[in-house]
């Protein structure tokens, strides 16, 4: 096949893919797409690159165009679901989570690959691709040398284009197009594909923000325990019964209040990172969407590293898989000496699919239990992420309870009991206990508002002190709470901050 013969069907297929992809996004988008010529050109470039990406694997123009349209259709469906549940469009860092979906389908509102409702369409799609390969001839040049050059040249050209985006001129152009993260605006202007590509390149070209430093004397706490409570907020805010824990918080905590978190209904790692580093998401640039992916736990002044420098043994407790969010590697980098993960909870009771919060509280107390008047190995800092109340809440999760809100309230009562167990277990010790919700639950009764995520709740207890202040409500952001905790493990001379 000659070069001129090759270009005609590819050009036609490109036009079809560009028009079809635009129609798919325009129909699915909650906001009308921008029709400004520059915005349309950038959007079209994104569609063209996706088409060429698929074309390099098959060299069949119509298969590549169809693959582009299928890609956009899948993105549009996922985007609509994500906006409904989380209040945020699809972003480039979501692609890094794809490997987790088949391993943990229950966390992503989907079915396992072995289910016929998933396996069936996948097998049909695979058979369709195979048949398409047979029916549509490859659009390669006639000679072997020219074919080889084409097969090697197209991937090399696409890779060179990506690397060009990381050069100084490329980053200058990208900074003009994407000066700061604004997903909803940029997706409406440039489309999902171009925005995902632009944000990924902007993130790769950014320098890391540095965590706030801390100066002053050593902490006098024997134990510091920080517990990130899965999907926790005061259930009374959702129409549920009063939680006994909330009354104790208002009566006994040094400070408490609402916690402004970086995401709604998901993305636990965003709140984790903010608390562990004291960094506001706005300081993370385009790395804000998945700080663990962007920064890989490389935080020289993380809360755990400060605690270790102050003489604490550092322990991370999480009753779930080590590979999820790559936590095992990330938390080692963050400065935790020891990880207590799902395998360490063998035989522990489960409530629904996950380890019970009360069992996690008992494990925390065992980790900091006094031995000869002191915590094992001296002073101990524990950061824990609970799991019992992780969504989705759907029929079959709890025997006799099918309503999602009722399931959530059933679990959150156990969360309250677990925190009370920690309060009782640490009372009388020279200790700090902080508990906070990572994000609001993704329930129909708790949809994300237009202005941002729903705030969760937090509480900070200081035990074993004669001068503990009266409880005070102080609303914070997750990053501000991280700064408060930095003072707890390595305080400034002015004491606890807010």
UniProtKB/TrEMBL annotation:
The keyword Repeat does not apply. It is a multi-pass membrane protein. InterPro entries: Alkaline_phosphatase_core_sf, OpgB/LTA_synthase_biosynth, Sulfatase_N. Residues 224-445 form the Sulfatase N-terminal domain. The chain crosses the membrane at residues 6-28, 40-56, 62-78, 116-135, 147-166. Its main location: membrane. It is found in: Cell membrane. Keywords: Cell membrane, Membrane, Transmembrane, Transmembrane helix. This is Sulfatase-like hydrolase/transferase. It comes from Methylorubrum podarium.
């Amino acid at each position: 096949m000659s070069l001129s013969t090759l270009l005609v069907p590819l050009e036609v297929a490109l036009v079809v893919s560009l028009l079809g992809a635009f129609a798919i996004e325009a129909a699915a988008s909650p906001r009308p797409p921008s029709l400004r010529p520059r915005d349309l050109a950038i959007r079209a470039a994104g569609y063209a690159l996706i088409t060429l990406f698929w074309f390099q694997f098959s060299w069949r123009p119509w298969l590549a165009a169809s693959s582009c349209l299928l890609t956009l259709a899948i993105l549009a469906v996922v985007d609509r679901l994500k906006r409904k549940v989380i209040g945020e469009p699809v972003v480039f860092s979501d692609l890094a989570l794809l490997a987790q979906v088949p391993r943990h389908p229950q966390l992503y509102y989907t079915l396992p690959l072995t289910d016929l409702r998933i396996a069936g369409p996948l097998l049909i799609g695979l058979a369709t691709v195979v048949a398409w390969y047979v029916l549509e001839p490859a659009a390669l040049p006639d000679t072997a040398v020219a074919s080889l050059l084409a097969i090697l040249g197209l991937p090399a050209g696409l890779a060179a284009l990506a690397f060009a985006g990381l050069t100084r001129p490329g980053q200058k152009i990208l900074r003009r197009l994407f000066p700061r993260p604004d997903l909803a605006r940029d997706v409406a202007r440039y489309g999902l594909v171009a925005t995902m590509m632009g944000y990924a390149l902007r993130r790769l070209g950014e320098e890391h923000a540095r965590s706030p430093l801390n100066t002053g004397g050593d902490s006098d706490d024997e134990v510091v325990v920080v517990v990130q409570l899965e999907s926790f907020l005061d259930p009374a805010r959702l129409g549920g019964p009063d939680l006994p824990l909330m009354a104790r918080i208002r009566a006994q905590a040094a400070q408490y209040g609402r916690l402004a978190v970086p995401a709604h209904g998901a993305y636990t790692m965003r709140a984790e990172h903010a608390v562990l580093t004291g960094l506001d998401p706005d300081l993370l640039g385009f790395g804000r969407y998945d700080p663990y992916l962007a920064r890989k736990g490389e935080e020289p002044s993380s809360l755990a590293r400060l605690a270790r420098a102050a003489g604490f043994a550092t322990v991370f407790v999480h009753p779930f898989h080590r590979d999820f969010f790559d936590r095992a590697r990330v938390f080692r980098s963050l400065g935790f000496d020891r990880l207590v993960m799902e395998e360490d909870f063998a035989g522990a009771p489960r409530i629904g699919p996950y380890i019970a919060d009360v069992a996690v509280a008992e494990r925390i107390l065992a980790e900091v239990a006094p031995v000869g008047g002191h915590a094992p190995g001296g002073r101990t800092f524990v950061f824990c992420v609970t799991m019992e109340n992780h969504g989705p809440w759907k029929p079959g999760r709890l025997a006799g309870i099918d309503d999602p809100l009722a399931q959530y309230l059933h679990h959150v009562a156990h969360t309250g009991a677990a925190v009370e167990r920690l309060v009782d277990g640490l009372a009388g010790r020279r200790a700090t206990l902080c508990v906070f919700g990572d994000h609001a639950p993704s329930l129909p009764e708790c949809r994300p508002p237009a202005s941002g995520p729903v705030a969760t709740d937090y509480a900070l207890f200081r035990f074993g002190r004669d001068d503990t202040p009266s409880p005070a409500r102080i609303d914070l952001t997750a990053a501000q709470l991280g700064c408060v905790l930095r003072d707890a493990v390595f305080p400034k001379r002015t004491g606890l901050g807010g």
